[in-house]
Design brief:
By secondary structure, this protein is an alpha+beta fold. The chain has one domain: Conserved Hypothetical Protein Mth637, Chain: A. Helices cover 18% and strands 38% of the residues. Strands 2-3-1-5-4 form a five-stranded mixed sheet, with helices on one face. Strand 2 and strand 3 form a beta hairpin.
Length: 72
């Protein structure tokens, strides 16, 4: 399953908000450097879907706020 994520790095608190069936807004505390925010988003999505982080893969948008993730 592919989901579309609007990333919000450097937020005050971590949260995952589902906008519709395949669109999410994910806020993380980590800054967007050296992939820190991407890793935090993977962990937040894994916790939201009750999965292991290894089952969440970033497909597109490595340096963009608009990202596509694949849930395996």
């Amino acid at each position: 399953m592919r989901i579309f994520v609007h990333a919000k790095p450097r937020a005050k608190a971590e949260r995952v908000e589902q906008l519709d069936a395949s669109h999410f807004a994910v806020a993380v505390v980590e800054p967007p450097k050296n992939g820190e925010a991407n890793r935090a988003i993977i962990h937040a999505l894994a916790a939201h879907f009750s999965l292991s982080p290894s089952r969440v893969r970033l497909v597109s948008g490595f340096s963009s706020r608009e990202k596509i993730f694949e849930i395996l």
